[in-house]
Amino acid sequence: MQDKNLLWLVGAAEPAKLHAAADAWDALAEKYFAHSRDWAANTQQRVLNSGWTGEAAEAARTELEKWEGQLKACQRELDTIGTTMRTAADRLTMFKLQRQAIHDQARADELTINELVDGPPHVTIDLAAYGEESPQLRHDPDYQDGMTKGAARRRELLSRIEEFEKAVREADDDYAGTLEAAADTARLAVVDDRYSSYQQEQAQKERRSVLPDAVVTNSDPKAVKQWWDSLPPEVRQQLLKDYPELGNTDGIPAQDRDTANRLHLPEVRAEMERELAAPQPAQWASRTKLDSLVSLQEQLDSPSTPPRMLLGLGDPAGTGSATNVPAFNAIVAYGNPDKAKNVAAYVPPSGGLDKEFVSGDLEFGKRLNVAANQADPKSPTATVVWMNYDAPPRVASTSISMTGGGASSPNGQGFNQFLNGVRTTHDDGPPPRLTAIGTGAYEGTIHNALDTNEGCPATSVVINKDPDFEDRVSDGFPKGQSLAADPNDPAYFKAAANVVTGHGDRNNPVVPQ
User: Does residue 398 carry a pLDDT above 60?
Assistant: First the structure.
């Protein structure tokens, strides 16, 4: 590869074929996973549950545990290879875009790149642009100045090509090293558990390198949108398939977030089912979580007016960060926030992605949406049910979250960033009117959002009466009245809908019905 023209090689490469190879590999790996599950159910479990005792039984259990460890390590190896192949395809796609940008810069700078199969590319100045057809001009000061500037632009372009080639070689070395290590493991016919885990971690690092830092850290919606807008539509669609975390990234348009999360939801369900079928399921796996995923899928598949959008889907294994969707939570919208003039973000007071979230919290968001669109039919409203924090449990001493939960994890920063992301991805026109809504039972997230240094970007706030925040509650919502005791009271919806649509002046003192 050292003697090849990497610009030419990247241009001739076909990432689609590598993606097809990755799909075929994943299909093969899934057959192995199915075989492993069958072995666990029909061999290991039968022995463990047979009632067999004694030294021979103990030796058999030890041997079975060894084979179980080998099977899981092999699964990691297969997963690592599939991840590496898919990452290489996506990285190659990005390199092709960078190559096109280099050629675009050359044309803009009146330079010509001559690509040869072997050897480095040649960059020449387009002499015709400086009057080559008139040799007399070569003594003209303007011509000399143009040639000097052209030579400087040529050096800059050559430097950019050199950096490009360096990045291509480094990526090629990384992927080749991962695959060669997997081949060495196959030749040994024994998989080291710790080494396979290390290889899997390295593959995930390589995978994340395809995305810009703003996406990996989910820290800058404007930078994310700028990057996303720069990609061709077909590249975006492939990334949504390969990188489900894009569905949780602020700055990605709502429609694309919904696409990524809907593609990922069946994968999360399948992962949960596989883990529950294992002889010793991981601590994070539970039948309650699986039932919640099934209920959420049924909700998303059923017709709805306005349509539902899945704007965030948490990790069932219980990982998360301050700004990304935490453990096993979700963000669901009624209507498209990018096209609505009013956006109301409702923060449920407790729970997580459980069946009550699907049947109760989402119904609250839908009813609020209907009320707001009735309050102002000419000004479309989207409502968002934002369960992106470790909420207090619905019942004392219980929690579906695996990261602790409770008032110590309100994630006001993440709430504010989500609202800023809505502003960033909103279609052309005035920014939407944003309303933050709590029901009073627990409003720590909104309180935390109001207390951040940047301040909450919401245009209006609807929360229960609180002496510390009363001056920041929207004037249009009746103060001093605790409708939180029954947030399903029609009077609450009517008053909140008026504030959401900017018609708080319609609210007279509310009498609960």
Answer: no
